[in-house]
Structure to design on (415 residues):
């Protein structure tokens, strides 16, 4: 094997990490400026929940077309298109002025941003052997937390210095730069001229073989596909809740201004980044030590679900900093869990199907993600944040239970 810095798969993973960071900075743009926008445009919690729900509906609608594009046309073209598509949508937010305009643009943004995961998972399944996939997923999924760390101070500073419009324009420019880098650097392993034969053989070790991309109806006949869809349906809305509602919660419930949000709202996402990498590392370590993939995923996802239960403590916290401390534990656990949830897809499906299976899980997550913000807005307007925190505490545990109840063992699906 070449030295680590010359191994191509890690350079490819660095580009996936970078685009996921950009994705989540774009995604956070609205939530960071929401306190200012809501006061200026007189949006209620229900209005804001409707706008967030439109984004999740876009994610749900866009998932399968994006997954099909990744499987049929490849990730070099597919990811390039997805990033261009969502970057244009995010930039146009700077021109919006009504609830419907914001909702329409969030829907458009969602139809593109969902391609990040279907494309990223397909790249990981093509470029990494099984024992490294959870770590690779943890690294690139960690970009969601890095983006969420960067977003509050960056976007708060842009809003204070140049107005809220700039919080949408500058992050969008990063997407156009990334597309140029990706199109220049990326090739499939079979076509990449810089890939050594030793690394090529290492990547191919233990790979699930498939003669041709299986039909989507074939995928939907497998219990494994429905198992990961159920898990993402239940666990997916949790991190979205914290991404979209944390600034609002700190502003309305604890009196934080935009400057304080920029100073403190990134902390839980740093914990989430550590959880994403830690969950991937722990699973890889267990598999290397001889644990079957099923057992390794059960242990890591179960531990993550236990941490998510700390959201119940957040519901009854009386100070902002106690609440932030337990939210840190929750996001650590959620990403610890989700790195292995995504890696489980590559345990059970060949690379030719990973893009669409990930998209199917995204449709399930998008459905719950579209409904949950609407429920959140109504609950906060009518009651308080307490029932919402209780719900997001137990949903990941239910998702893990559903995954292993339905799939039983994380073995290759019969296609």
């Amino acid at each position: 094997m070449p030295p680590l810095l010359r191994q191509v798969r890690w350079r490819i993973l660095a580009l996936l990490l970078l685009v996921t960071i950009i994705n989540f900075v774009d995604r956070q743009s609205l939530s960071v400026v929401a306190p200012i926008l809501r006061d200026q445009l007189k949006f209620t919690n229900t209005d804001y929940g409707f706008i967030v729900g439109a984004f999740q509906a876009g994610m749900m609608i866009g998932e399968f077309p994006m997954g099909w594009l990744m499987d049929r046309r490849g990730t070099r073209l597919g990811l390039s298109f997805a990033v261009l598509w969502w970057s244009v949508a995010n930039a146009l937010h700077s021109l919006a002025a009504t609830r419907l305009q914001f909702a329409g643009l969030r829907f458009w943004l969602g139809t593109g941003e969902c391609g990040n995961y279907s494309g990223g998972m397909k790249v990981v399944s093509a470029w990494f052997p099984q024992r490294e996939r959870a770590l690779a997923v943890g690294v690139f999924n960690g970009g969601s937390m890095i983006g969420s760390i960067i977003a509050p101070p960056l976007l708060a500073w842009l809003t204070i210095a140049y107005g809220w419009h700039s919080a949408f324009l500058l992050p969008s420019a990063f997407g156009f730069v990334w597309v140029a880098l990706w199109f220049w650097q990326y090739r499939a392993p079979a076509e990449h001229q810089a890939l050594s034969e030793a690394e090529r053989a290492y990547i191919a070790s233990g790979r699930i073989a498939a003669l041709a991309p299986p039909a989507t109806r074939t995928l939907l006949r497998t219990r494994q596909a429905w198992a990961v869809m159920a898990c993402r349906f239940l666990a997916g809305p949790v991190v979205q809740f914290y991404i979209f509602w944390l600034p609002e919660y700190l502003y309305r419930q604890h009196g934080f201004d935009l400057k304080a949000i920029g100073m403190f709202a990134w902390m839980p996402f740093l914990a989430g980044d550590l959880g994403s990498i830690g969950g991937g590392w722990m699973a890889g370590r267990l598999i290397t030590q001889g644990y079957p993939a099923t057992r390794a995923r059960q242990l890591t996802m179960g531990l993550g679900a236990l941490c998510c239960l700390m959201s119940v403590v957040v519901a009854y916290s009386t100070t902002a900093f106690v609440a932030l401390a337990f939210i840190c534990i929750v996001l650590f656990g959620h990403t610890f869990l989700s790195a292995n949830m995504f890696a489980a897809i590559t345990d059970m499906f060949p690379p030719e199907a990973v893009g669409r299976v990930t998209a199917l899980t995204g449709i399930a997550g998008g459905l719950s993600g579209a409904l949950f913000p609407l429920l959140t807005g109504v609950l906060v307007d009518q009651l308080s944040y307490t029932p919402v925190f209780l719900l997001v505490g137990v949903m990941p545990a239910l998702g893990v239970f559903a995954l292993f109840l339905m799939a039983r063992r994380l073995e290759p699906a019969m296609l």
In short: The chain is about 80% helix and 0% strand. The longest helix spans residues 8-41. Residues 7-186+217-407 form a domain with the Growth Hormone; Chain: A; fold (CATH 1.20.1250.20).
